[in-house]
Amino acid sequence: MGLVERYAAVRKRIAQAALRSGRQTEDITLVAVSKTWPAEVVVAGYDAGLRNFGENRIEELVKKRPEVEDILGNERGIVWHAIGTIQSRKSRLAAENADVIHALDRLKLADRLSRHLVELGRNNNNQIPVFLEVNVSGEASKAGLDCSRWEHDASQRAAARELALAIDELPGLHPMGLMTMAPWGAQSQEIREIFRRTRELAEWMQTATSQTAWSCLSMGMTDDFEIAIEEGATHVRIGRALFGDRH
Ligand SMILES: *Cc1c(COP(=O)(O)O)cnc(C)c1O
Questions:
Q1: Residues paired with 55 in a beta bridge
Q2: Residue from 161, 184, 179, 187 nearest 233 by CA
Q3: Contact 96/103 with Cβ under 8 angstroms?
């Protein structure tokens, strides 16, 4: 199977998962995770019809984006998503190169991103969409704001609400919703539970901040994107199912 066939298969699975859960396929953005693949593979993805690409390392995005733009030009409607954890000292590079940020998990990073975005002239008419990354599973290796006991722990809820409100106040940043990762190797029932609890947290957040802005959900990868869609994902981040196994 080549990329065109794999993309068709992924689209079909997204559509079927949407149908099963009474949702519209158009409400789900497919972010093609091109990490480790060269610019030529991104261009092949573009030719196949993909428009959203995700990179987890900022250095790789910084290198690959101009390579793709050298081939395609920079006005071809590609949206670059920074999906991985961002070290604070890389915040300038992220602000300069990412169109959407998925793993914002602390105020220090939000502050720095905002400062760089303002310097770049990205004011309130030209904000960058950001997702707040939450760790709902409690898995120690996972990044994200600790929301492992949010239903029972008022201090976790308060921390999430405060960070959400702070992000909304910062110029240059437009709050989209929550991002999460399922625990490695978990059974599908456990994964579903994590995604469901993330959706409920996003719903709580909208009420607690009086902002509908937190309604999007970035969750679901190659092994679990159908479960994520059934539980409300609006953005799925898929690498291997589109491009094959990474080397
Ligand atoms: C690599 C990666 C993905 C995609 O993983 P696949 O299993 O290849 O679909 C999604 N999200 C993040 C944050 C990643 O680093």
A1: 82
A2: 179
A3: no
Which ligand 1 atom lies nearest to the CA of residue 238?
A: 9
Residue 28 φ/ψ region, left for φ over 0, alpha for ψ in the -120 to 50 degree band, beta for the rest: beta
Ligand 1 pocket by Cβ (under 6 Å)? 33, 35, 56, 83-84, 221-222, 237-240
Residue nearest to atom 14 of ligand 1 (CA): 56
**Which atom, in ligand 1's list, is nearest to the CA of 83?**
13
CA distance 17 to 44: 26
pTM: 0.97
The 10 Å CB-count burial string (b at 16+, else e) for 93-130 is: bbbebbebbbbbbeeebbbbbbbbbeeeebeeeebbbb
105's enclosing H/E stretch is none
Maximal CA-CA distance, the chain: 52
Rounded mean pLDDT, 62-75: 95
Q: How far apart, in whole angstroms, are the C-alpha atoms of residue 232 and residue 61? A: 28
* Per-position b or e across 157-189, b if 16+ CB within 10 A of its CB: beebeebbeebbebebbbbbbbbbbbbeebeee
In one letter, which amino acid is 226? E
pLDDT in tens, 11-43: 999 999 999 999 999 999 999 999 999 999 999
